[in-house]
Amino acid sequence: MIDHKIVWFTGQPGSGKTTLATELKSRLEKKSLNVIIVDGDDLRNITTNKDYSRKGREENIKTAQKIAKFVFNKNFFTIVSLVAPYRSIRENFKKDVPVLEVYLVTSEIRGREHFFASDYQKPNSNFLEIDTGENSIDQCIDIIYDKLNAER
């Protein structure tokens, strides 16, 4: 059985964060786990923060982290799908709660490139990198499951 934790999908727009978050949620629920997704697009829709400047993005990331920590502490398996371009904010969060950071990349053109964060900072420690252009959705989820099971 997979341990209760937070899986944080990060990467540029169009890398597959929401797709994989939704698929992972579906599979975990089949194992009778209570799962919730904190998605960047949903978060912007329920808050007044429509600011894509560095300050606005940092505020959005910190809001997502607060929500993720809250639902994690309520015993939900928590999945976050958010660009979250700033490494230091992600790293600080990993010190506070058990997080599997999953960095998604692809060289495929998916039509979201105009939303890219030019200041995105790739993770450099304690993360799982998956190329969503080289792996199917099922293969990506299998890689994540293997990592989650290895960390038990």
Give structural notes.
This protein is of the alpha/beta class and 152 residues long. It has one domain: 3-Layer(aba) Sandwich (Rossmann fold). Helix content is 43%, strand content 18%. It contains five helices and five strands; from the N terminus they run βαβααβαββα. A five-stranded parallel beta sheet has the order 2-3-1-4-5, with helices on both faces.
Provide the fold topology.
Layout: E1 6-10, H1 17-30, E2 35-39, H2 40-46, H3 54-73, E3 77-81, H4 87-96, E4 99-105, E5 127-131, H5 137-150
Parallel strand pairs: 1-3, 1-4, 2-3, 4-5
Largest sheet: 5 strands, parallel
CATH class: Alpha Beta
Q: Give helix % range.
A: 40-55%
- Unreliable stretches (pLDDT < 50, length at least 5) are none
According to CATH, the homologous superfamily is P-loop containing nucleotide triphosphate hydrolases
Number of distinct helices: 5
What's the gyration radius in Å? Answer: 14 Å
* CATH architecture type: 3-Layer(aba) Sandwich
Oligomer: single chain
Rounded mean pLDDT score: 87
Q: Rough shape?
A: globular
Strand content: 15-25%
Question: Largest sheet, order of strands side by side?
Answer: 2-3-1-4-5
The SS-based structural class is alpha/beta
Whole-number count of domains: 1
Count every beta strand, where a strand is a DSSP E run of 2 or more residues.
Answer: 5
Q: Kindly, what is the distance between the CA atoms of the first and last residues, rounded to a whole number of angstroms?
A: 9 Å
Here the CATH topology equals: Rossmann fold
In N-to-C order, the SSE pattern is: EHEHHEHEEH
